[in-house]
Write a structure and sequence with these properties.
three-stranded antiparallel beta sheet; alpha+beta; FAD/NAD(P)-binding domain; single chain; binds flavin-adenine dinucleotide; five-stranded antiparallel beta sheet; D-Amino Acid Oxidase, Chain A, domain 2; 2 domains; 26% strand
């Protein structure tokens, strides 16, 4: 589950001696001769040779660095998630199609799994928190067996999470001078290939590899973007295409073919 992954990552980050300041944002930055002078909301000013921005799909830095960059676009589906106890037979990801709803079960530990359910919604709407479990129950009406059981057990105390799906692919370059952007800030995807966080983490790994082997930061950033572009483009565009196919009632075989093709590409070296 995300909180477990988060604590692994944050413990490792602190153990590596990283100076972590939480709840702080960049308020101003100025570039001069390969140096970036950054002012932060805690009143500090520091000089860096490289600033790496990973402030997510709604990145404020992207708006300031690249005012003409595209903005995240709503793709017509909502993603519902529910955490539940995992029965032993759910030992891998399971998919269920009941057009226009796609649902799935994903094991996350020996005892837990989550349900995801994608539902069409022509416009973005506000779904009151207190009524989310009831709406999810309605959406799960077509299903029987294990999904039917999960539906029947839904109650006001169920932990339900719902998000509209949005995507954006920012054209290269992803840096201006020595301020570079990675992750959702430049390639936010819908979750159809379950790979948004995966490619965000890969960005960090590949960027550190190039920084370790290149003395010229500009060259390292160019090489980084060249290496990352095709893989990130594929994830964003194929994920959005899978969502469109679901909305257009494409046959399960066609959906499976695009997922299999994308997953095979994802298994290649990063
Ligand atoms: C419904 C749903 C399901 C998903 N399922 C999967 C999945 O199964 N597998 C997968 O790999 N990915 C999945 N993703 C995608 C994944 O969540 C994202 O791709 C990933 O979180 C992107 O990481 P990031 O670090 O780039 O951005 P974020 O996780 O968005 O992190 C950005 C951070 O920047 C901070 N921030 C924002 N603005 C500022 C600012 N101005 N100053 C300082 N800090 C700021 C935010 O507080 C946040 O902590 C899913 C996404 C959704 C919506």
């Amino acid at each position: 589950m995300r909180p477990v992954l988060h604590s692994i990552l944050s413990n490792r980050t602190r153990a590596a001696g990283t100076d972590v300041r939480l709840g702080v944002t960049m308020t101003e930055w100025k570039q001069d001769n390969g140096r970036v002078t950054v002012k932060t909301s805690d009143g500090q000013q520091r000089v860096y040779s490289l600033v790496v921005v990973a402030d997510g799909a709604l990145s404020k830095t992207r708006e300031r660095l690249f005012p003409d960059a595209p903005k995240p676009k709503y793709t017509g589906q909502y993603c519902w998630r529910l955490v539940a106890d995992r029965p032993p037979e759910i030992d891998r990801c399971h998919f269920y199609l009941a057009h226009p709803i796609t649902a799935g079960l994903m094991p996350t530990s020996a005892t837990q799994m989550y349900l995801f359910l994608l539902s069409p919604e022509p416009q973005k709407i506000r779904i009151e928190e207190g009524t989310q479990w009831q709406r999810l129950k309605e959406l799960m009406a077509p299903f029987g067996a294990i999904l039917g059981k999960l539906r029947d057990n839904l109650s006001a105390s169920s932990i339900v999470n719902v998000r509209p799906l949005e995507a954006v692919l920012v054209p290269r370059p992803w840096h201006r001078g020595n301020v570079a952007m990675i992750g959702d800030a430049v390639h936010a995807t819908t979750p159809h290939l379950a790979s948004g966080a995966g490619i965000a983490v890969e960005d960090a790994l590949v960027l550190s590899d190039f920084l370790a082997s290149e003395t010229d930061i500009g060259r390292a950033l160019d090489r980084f973007e060249e290496r990352r572009w095709e893989r990130c483009r594929m994830v964003v565009e194929n994920s959005v295409a899978i969502g469109e196919m679901e909305l257009n009632h494409a046959s399960p075989d066609k959906l499976k073919a695009l997922m299999a093709e994308s997953e095979s590409a994802l298994r290649a070296d990063i």
